[in-house]
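Hey all, quick one. A colleague (J.T.) asked me to put the phosphoenolpyruvate job into the tracker so the inputs and the C-alpha coordinates live in one place instead of scattered across chat threads. No bug as far as I know, just bookkeeping. Sequence used:
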Amino acid sequence: MRTPLVAGNWKMNGSRESVAGLMQGITAGAGLEGMEMLVCPPFVYIPQVAAAIGEAPVALGGQDLYTEANGAFTGEISGAMLADVGCQYVIIGHSERRALLGESDGKIARKFLAAQENNLIPILCLGETLDERQADSTLQVIGSQFSAVVDVVGIEAFARAVVAYEPVWAIGTGETATPEQAQEVHAALRSMAAKRSAKIAADLRLLYGGSVKAANAAELFSMPDIDGGLIGGASLEANEFLAICRAATV
Ligand code: PEP
Protein backbone atom coordinates (compact mmCIF):
# COMPACT_ATOMS: atom_id res chain seq x y z
CA MET A 1 0.00 0.00 0.00
CA ARG A 2 1.56 3.29 -1.13
CA THR A 3 0.68 6.38 0.93
CA PRO A 4 0.24 9.31 -1.47
CA LEU A 5 2.74 12.13 -1.01
CA VAL A 6 2.13 15.75 -1.99
CA ALA A 7 5.35 17.76 -1.95
CA GLY A 8 5.60 21.53 -2.32
CA ASN A 9 8.71 22.73 -4.12
CA TRP A 10 8.85 26.42 -3.28
CA LYS A 11 11.87 26.94 -5.54
CA MET A 12 13.61 30.32 -5.02
CA ASN A 13 10.54 32.10 -3.64
CA GLY A 14 9.58 33.65 -0.34
CA SER A 15 10.50 36.05 2.43
CA ARG A 16 10.33 35.62 6.20
CA GLU A 17 6.93 37.27 6.12
CA SER A 18 5.46 35.23 3.27
CA VAL A 19 6.89 32.00 4.72
CA ALA A 20 5.19 32.73 8.05
CA GLY A 21 1.83 33.28 6.35
CA LEU A 22 2.15 30.24 4.12
CA MET A 23 3.09 27.95 7.01
CA GLN A 24 0.26 29.28 9.15
CA GLY A 25 -2.17 28.29 6.41
CA ILE A 26 -0.57 24.90 5.72
CA THR A 27 -0.29 23.79 9.35
CA ALA A 28 -3.90 24.84 9.97
CA GLY A 29 -5.01 22.35 7.29
CA ALA A 30 -2.48 19.59 8.03
CA GLY A 31 -3.41 16.19 9.41
CA LEU A 32 -5.36 14.82 6.45
CA GLU A 33 -5.93 11.08 6.72
CA GLY A 34 -4.33 8.81 4.15
CA MET A 35 -1.71 11.10 2.66
CA GLU A 36 1.64 12.67 3.52
CA MET A 37 2.31 16.38 3.17
CA LEU A 38 5.81 17.75 2.51
CA VAL A 39 7.22 21.24 2.04
CA CYS A 40 10.62 22.02 0.50
CA PRO A 41 11.53 25.67 1.21
CA PRO A 42 14.69 27.50 0.12
CA PHE A 43 17.59 26.51 2.41
CA VAL A 44 17.64 29.76 4.38
CA TYR A 45 14.01 29.39 5.47
CA ILE A 46 14.27 25.74 6.58
CA PRO A 47 14.79 26.53 10.31
CA GLN A 48 11.86 28.97 10.23
CA VAL A 49 9.66 26.35 8.56
CA ALA A 50 10.80 23.64 11.00
CA ALA A 51 9.75 25.90 13.89
CA ALA A 52 6.42 26.66 12.24
CA ILE A 53 5.75 22.94 11.71
CA GLY A 54 6.39 22.12 15.36
CA GLU A 55 4.43 18.94 16.02
CA ALA A 56 2.17 19.31 12.96
CA PRO A 57 2.16 16.36 10.54
CA VAL A 58 4.07 18.12 7.77
CA ALA A 59 7.37 16.71 6.52
CA LEU A 60 10.29 18.96 5.62
CA GLY A 61 12.72 18.68 2.73
CA GLY A 62 15.55 20.45 0.94
CA GLN A 63 15.52 21.31 -2.76
CA ASP A 64 19.03 20.02 -3.39
CA LEU A 65 22.18 18.92 -1.56
CA TYR A 66 25.86 18.62 -2.32
CA THR A 67 27.61 15.31 -2.89
CA GLU A 68 30.14 15.75 -0.06
CA ALA A 69 29.52 15.84 3.71
CA ASN A 70 31.55 18.98 4.54
CA GLY A 71 34.67 20.90 3.60
CA ALA A 72 35.86 23.54 1.17
CA PHE A 73 32.79 23.73 -1.08
CA THR A 74 31.79 27.37 -0.91
CA GLY A 75 28.08 27.95 -1.14
CA GLU A 76 27.06 24.30 -0.94
CA ILE A 77 24.79 22.57 1.59
CA SER A 78 25.32 18.94 2.67
CA GLY A 79 22.89 16.17 3.49
CA ALA A 80 24.21 16.14 7.06
CA MET A 81 23.24 19.82 7.39
CA LEU A 82 19.75 19.21 6.00
CA ALA A 83 19.22 16.34 8.44
CA ASP A 84 20.61 18.49 11.25
CA VAL A 85 17.96 21.18 10.69
CA GLY A 86 15.11 18.69 10.58
CA CYS A 87 14.71 17.59 6.96
CA GLN A 88 13.49 14.10 6.10
CA TYR A 89 13.47 14.48 2.30
CA VAL A 90 15.53 16.12 -0.42
CA ILE A 91 14.70 16.79 -4.08
CA ILE A 92 17.37 15.54 -6.48
CA GLY A 93 17.86 16.13 -10.19
CA HIS A 94 15.12 18.72 -10.71
CA SER A 95 15.00 19.65 -14.41
CA GLU A 96 15.85 23.28 -13.57
CA ARG A 97 19.12 22.08 -12.03
CA ARG A 98 19.76 19.67 -14.90
CA ALA A 99 19.18 22.39 -17.52
CA LEU A 100 20.36 25.62 -15.84
CA LEU A 101 23.15 24.26 -13.65
CA GLY A 102 24.36 21.43 -15.86
CA GLU A 103 23.71 18.57 -13.44
CA SER A 104 24.61 15.25 -15.01
CA ASP A 105 23.07 11.84 -14.32
CA GLY A 106 26.37 10.87 -12.65
CA LYS A 107 26.25 13.79 -10.26
CA ILE A 108 22.58 13.12 -9.51
CA ALA A 109 23.41 9.50 -8.62
CA ARG A 110 26.12 10.73 -6.22
CA LYS A 111 23.63 13.14 -4.64
CA PHE A 112 21.16 10.27 -4.22
CA LEU A 113 23.80 8.34 -2.29
CA ALA A 114 24.73 11.39 -0.21
CA ALA A 115 21.05 11.84 0.72
CA GLN A 116 20.64 8.27 1.90
CA GLU A 117 23.93 8.33 3.79
CA ASN A 118 22.29 11.03 5.90
CA ASN A 119 18.95 9.23 6.28
CA LEU A 120 17.23 11.61 3.89
CA ILE A 121 14.70 10.24 1.42
CA PRO A 122 15.67 11.37 -2.08
CA ILE A 123 12.95 12.48 -4.48
CA LEU A 124 14.54 11.73 -7.83
CA CYS A 125 13.14 13.92 -10.63
CA LEU A 126 13.01 12.69 -14.22
CA GLY A 127 11.43 14.20 -17.29
CA GLU A 128 11.61 14.70 -21.04
CA THR A 129 11.74 17.97 -22.96
CA LEU A 130 9.12 18.94 -25.53
CA ASP A 131 11.50 18.07 -28.38
CA GLU A 132 12.08 14.64 -26.88
CA ARG A 133 8.33 14.03 -26.51
CA GLN A 134 7.68 15.17 -30.07
CA ALA A 135 10.45 12.87 -31.27
CA ASP A 136 8.62 10.02 -29.50
CA SER A 137 11.57 9.35 -27.24
CA THR A 138 9.89 10.02 -23.86
CA LEU A 139 10.15 6.49 -22.50
CA GLN A 140 13.70 6.14 -23.73
CA VAL A 141 14.75 9.40 -22.01
CA ILE A 142 13.00 8.48 -18.76
CA GLY A 143 14.47 4.98 -18.89
CA SER A 144 17.98 6.29 -19.35
CA GLN A 145 17.66 8.92 -16.55
CA PHE A 146 16.27 6.25 -14.23
CA SER A 147 18.78 3.52 -15.02
CA ALA A 148 21.71 5.96 -14.77
CA VAL A 149 20.86 6.26 -11.08
CA VAL A 150 19.70 2.67 -10.40
CA ASP A 151 22.88 1.27 -11.98
CA VAL A 152 24.92 3.23 -9.42
CA VAL A 153 22.82 2.98 -6.26
CA GLY A 154 21.08 -0.39 -6.85
CA ILE A 155 17.34 -1.04 -6.91
CA GLU A 156 17.26 -1.86 -3.19
CA ALA A 157 18.06 1.81 -2.48
CA PHE A 158 14.62 2.66 -3.91
CA ALA A 159 12.99 1.07 -0.87
CA ARG A 160 13.67 4.47 0.72
CA ALA A 161 13.24 6.83 -2.22
CA VAL A 162 10.55 8.56 -4.26
CA VAL A 163 10.58 9.18 -8.01
CA ALA A 164 8.91 12.23 -9.56
CA TYR A 165 8.02 12.25 -13.25
CA GLU A 166 8.08 15.89 -14.33
CA PRO A 167 7.80 16.53 -18.06
CA VAL A 168 9.95 19.61 -18.64
CA TRP A 169 7.36 21.09 -21.00
CA ALA A 170 4.78 21.04 -18.20
CA ILE A 171 6.84 22.69 -15.46
CA GLY A 172 5.72 26.22 -14.73
CA THR A 173 4.02 26.47 -18.12
CA GLY A 174 0.41 25.95 -17.12
CA GLU A 175 0.36 23.01 -19.53
CA THR A 176 -0.23 19.72 -17.69
CA ALA A 177 0.29 16.23 -19.02
CA THR A 178 -3.07 14.53 -19.42
CA PRO A 179 -3.74 11.87 -16.79
CA GLU A 180 -3.32 9.26 -19.56
CA GLN A 181 0.04 10.70 -20.70
CA ALA A 182 1.30 10.77 -17.12
CA GLN A 183 -0.05 7.29 -16.35
CA GLU A 184 1.70 5.85 -19.40
CA VAL A 185 5.08 7.09 -18.17
CA HIS A 186 4.42 6.09 -14.55
CA ALA A 187 3.41 2.58 -15.59
CA ALA A 188 6.54 2.31 -17.74
CA LEU A 189 8.70 3.51 -14.85
CA ARG A 190 7.15 0.98 -12.50
CA SER A 191 7.72 -1.84 -14.96
CA MET A 192 11.36 -0.72 -15.45
CA ALA A 193 11.78 -0.92 -11.68
CA ALA A 194 9.94 -4.28 -11.57
CA LYS A 195 12.46 -5.82 -13.96
CA ARG A 196 14.99 -5.34 -11.14
CA SER A 197 12.71 -5.99 -8.14
CA ALA A 198 8.97 -6.62 -8.23
CA LYS A 199 8.66 -5.85 -4.52
CA ILE A 200 10.51 -2.51 -4.68
CA ALA A 201 8.52 -1.51 -7.79
CA ALA A 202 5.18 -2.30 -6.16
CA ASP A 203 5.99 -0.13 -3.13
CA LEU A 204 7.75 2.74 -4.97
CA ARG A 205 5.94 6.06 -4.79
CA LEU A 206 5.81 7.77 -8.20
CA LEU A 207 4.82 11.45 -8.11
CA TYR A 208 3.67 13.52 -11.05
CA GLY A 209 4.86 17.12 -11.35
CA GLY A 210 4.12 19.81 -13.92
CA SER A 211 1.49 22.52 -13.47
CA VAL A 212 -0.57 20.51 -10.98
CA LYS A 213 -3.28 22.63 -9.40
CA ALA A 214 -6.45 22.03 -7.39
CA ALA A 215 -8.47 21.90 -10.61
CA ASN A 216 -6.54 18.99 -12.17
CA ALA A 217 -5.04 17.15 -9.17
CA ALA A 218 -7.87 14.70 -8.47
CA GLU A 219 -7.95 13.41 -12.04
CA LEU A 220 -4.17 12.93 -12.10
CA PHE A 221 -4.06 11.29 -8.67
CA SER A 222 -6.85 8.88 -9.60
CA MET A 223 -4.55 7.11 -12.05
CA PRO A 224 -3.32 3.75 -10.73
CA ASP A 225 0.41 4.50 -10.85
CA ILE A 226 0.32 8.16 -9.73
CA ASP A 227 1.00 8.32 -6.01
CA GLY A 228 0.78 12.06 -5.45
CA GLY A 229 2.49 15.12 -6.83
CA LEU A 230 5.49 17.42 -6.77
CA ILE A 231 3.96 20.88 -6.85
CA GLY A 232 5.76 24.09 -7.77
CA GLY A 233 3.77 27.30 -8.26
CA ALA A 234 0.57 26.03 -6.66
CA SER A 235 2.43 25.13 -3.44
CA LEU A 236 3.01 28.83 -2.71
CA GLU A 237 -0.64 29.42 -1.85
CA ALA A 238 -1.83 27.54 1.25
CA ASN A 239 -5.45 27.00 0.18
CA GLU A 240 -4.47 25.78 -3.26
CA PHE A 241 -1.81 23.47 -1.83
CA LEU A 242 -4.24 22.08 0.76
CA ALA A 243 -6.86 21.47 -1.93
CA ILE A 244 -4.26 19.47 -3.88
CA CYS A 245 -3.45 17.54 -0.71
CA ARG A 246 -7.13 16.74 -0.22
CA ALA A 247 -7.29 15.44 -3.79
CA ALA A 248 -4.66 12.87 -2.80
CA THR A 249 -6.84 11.45 -0.03
CA VAL A 250 -9.70 10.22 -2.23
C1 PEP B 1 8.29 21.81 -10.13
O1 PEP B 1 9.05 22.75 -10.20
O2 PEP B 1 8.68 20.74 -9.61
C2 PEP B 1 6.94 21.96 -10.68
C3 PEP B 1 6.23 20.88 -10.89
O3 PEP B 1 6.52 23.24 -10.93
P1 PEP B 1 5.02 23.70 -11.35
O4 PEP B 1 4.06 22.95 -10.49
O5 PEP B 1 5.00 25.17 -11.12
O6 PEP B 1 4.86 23.32 -12.79
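Adding what we noticed when we looked at it: The chain has one domain: 5-247. The mean pLDDT is 97.
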